[in-house]
Amino acid sequence: MSQMIGFDRSITLDWLDATAGISSETDDIEQIRNYLHAYLAEERPHYTARQKTITVLTRIWSRIPESDRPLRDEAFELLPTLNQDDRIWLHWGMCLLAYPFFRDIVRTVDRSLRYYDGFSKTEIIQQMSETWGERTTMPRAVQRVIESLKEWGVVITCDQKGRYERAISLSTQNKDVEIWLLKAVAHANPNGSLPMDRIHTIPEVFPFTSSLTIPDILTSKEFEVSQMGTNRFFIRY
After folding, report:
1. What are phi and psi of 91, to 5 degrees?
2. DSSP strand pairing (155-157 vs 193-195)
């Protein structure tokens, strides 16, 4: 069975904040949907479009598999302690957990930024087609994810029409949220582990600058550490 695309709407950080907030207060999905319908009514006046947007939002923060709930619940505890600029660290991690499609797009975007200093939507669609196939819904979904990345301020348009480039990297003074995002990345990784020597160049978190050191990771006691070969270490959450 082919993987679900799912993330096919442009999403704002305000909407993610609202979804995280209400989801931290109740597990009642109908109550969450009703709240979001009221919250989004002005910006998304058409019911069907609004409902599709709510479907994307609730999959990120509410309708999540049991295996992701411990990380989601930790995010709920962190949420009130974070300023507005740092909340994106949590939203990003929850998107990685909810949508493999989102994860593959941001990995593709990172590759283009790393080697070509920019990208167009068409280029990302072509590259995603190689792994996700020629689906009719895929081009539109890629466009919506890239529009979301622009709205979140992690990519910006450049002088060349239709192209995007990297925005200023995001950093934080909060080690707890850095550790949380690293756990989310490891949990979302199909291999379930990450090479410790590459924690500062993980493609799917390209907008973020991590200040974590190996002692930070080890003293957090949040990861299993394994050794491969003589001097290669991996972490697993």
Report:
1. -60, -40
2. unpaired
CA distances from 61 to 21, 40, 47, 72, 122 (A): 9, 16, 21, 7, 29
Tokens of 177: 């949220």
**Which pLDDT does position 154 carry in this prediction?**
97
Burial environment of residue 165 by CB neighbours within 10 A (0 to 12, 13 to 18, 19 or more): middle
Sequence letter at residue 22: I
Whole-prediction pTM: 0.95
Query: Coil, strand, or helix at residue 226?
Result: strand
140 closest CA partner among 154, 127, 122, 155? 122
Question: Strand 224-228 and strand 163-166: pairing?
Answer: unpaired
Distance CA 31, CA 127 (A): 39
Where residue 232 falls among pLDDT bands split at 50, 70, 90?
confident
